Amino acid sequence: MSLTNRQEEAIFRTLDTFQIELPSWAFANTGTRFGKFLDPSAASNIEEKLADAAQVNRFTGCCPSVAVHVLWDFPDGVASAAPAAQKARDLGVRIGSVSPNVFQDQDYKYGSLANPQAAIRTRSLDHILDSIEMARAAGSRDITPWFTDGSNYPGTANMRQHKRWFEEGLRAAHATLAPDQRLLIEYKPFEPTFYHTDIADWGMALQLAKSAGPQAKVLVDTGHHYQTQNIEQIVAWLLDDGMLGGFHLNDRRFADDDLTLGSIDPYQIFRIFHEICLYQFETGSPADIAFMVDQSHNLKPKAEEMIQTVMRAQMLFAKAAIVDHATLAAEQSKCNLIDAEECLQSAFQSDVRPVIEEWRRSKGLAANPLAAFRESGYLKRVIEERAGRAQAVSSYA
Ligand code: AFD
Ligand code: MN
Ligand code: MN
Questions:
Q1: Does 394 score more than 50 pLDDT?
Q2: pTM for the whole structure
Q3: 63, 280, 339, 340: least surrounded by Cβ within 10 Å?
Q4: What separation in Å is there between the alpha carbon of 266 and the centre of ligand 3?
Q5: Cα 153 to ligand 2 centroid, rounded to whole Å
């Protein structure tokens, strides 16, 4: 069934403003704890990551910013931030969210902001303050810390003390934010700690954000939930509270698998996007949400997988944009359960691809960004340029 004019206009309007941020780490060689298979096209420094991300933006038209990890992308700290930002601008993109890294150094073995040693708590706070400085130097708004603090065995950590250390540390970090910056607090139920994680769910992240200050919000990583959790309900509550800062988007089969968005459960992502479209319909104002991808791929070609992710995100958001909210509300008010569900499902089942392709043509973009990227020869060129640095490894890393 073809779409109505109203639906086509809704898709055009949505795609005109829908932007999604790419993670620098998705373009580099990553892997699992069982090792990694090196990709000859993989980027190995911020310049190459930005170049690859700029190609994804060139063909999709909706990825103007690149999320960075300070230890991996700003090796000289603040001194690296401005040159990286300039390189990004030269490529037609910009540096997006800045992730501190308080989980890799040996010092953080027993935690960062909640480490029993005050000196390490101070060290991790100083790193977060430096990251806020780097974000400012790069012209970035969002600082997105993810903490691995927690414990693996009962009795090995005082969970209330950890809570208080986090309240203290995040309040101190928030105090140094520039007026236009935000601190987006991410949560995750487990991994790499397995008995308790200090910021384990949306409630803890919400409470810590509210205690940190008015520029702190919650970051929802779609892979950071138990299998049966209703993520769209969490999104609805955070939206209603003005506390949803943004997303790390990915899909998962078992845990935080960081798979391609919509590859396992596209209906769930559609329902999340529907809550955002419904909020915007009911409030009449756009939700100020950062859509970021957080995926890392061991097997798929990196830039192609990013284009695939972006195309899927546009498709699922376009489906959410055509839900008939007035009819849905009317059916809900009369408890017409089947009609209400069918109203939502009919949007999800609609094939929005022809209209998206029309929107791309109207923007001077190729109707199929993946095909256009493949025809561009970029991948072949960078494989030649980056040759000689990667051999597949079969042993555990
Ligand atoms: C891992 C963590 C978390 C974090 C990301 C980037 O689980 O999602 O945001 O790495 O640091 O996926
Ligand atoms: Mn994440
Ligand atoms: Mn994750």
A1: no
A2: 0.96
A3: 339
A4: 18
A5: 24
- Quick one: which atom of ligand 1 is closest to the CA of 101? 11
For the stretch 106-155, pLDDT in tens is 999 999 999 999 999 999 999 999 999 999 999 999 999 999 999 999 99
- Please give the CATH number for the structural domain made up of 19-386: 3.20.20.150
Cα 71 from chain centroid? 18
Please report, rounded to a whole number, the percentage of residues in the chain having pLDDT higher than 70: 97
CB contact set of 214 (below 8 Å; sequence gap of 6+) = none
> Ligand 1 pocket: which of 225, 248, 250, 295 to mutate (most atoms <8 Å of CB)?
248
Domain boundaries, the chain: 19-386
pLDDT the model gives residue 31: 85
Check residue 181 and give its pLDDT.
98
Q: Which two tokens stand for residue 370?
A: 């993946």
Nearest protein Cα to ligand 1, atom 3 = 146
| CB 37 within 8 Å of CB 306 | no
Q: Is the CB of 221 under 6 A from ligand 1?
A: yes
- Can you tell me the distance from the alpha carbon of 259 to that of 300, in angstroms, rounded to the nearest whole number? 10
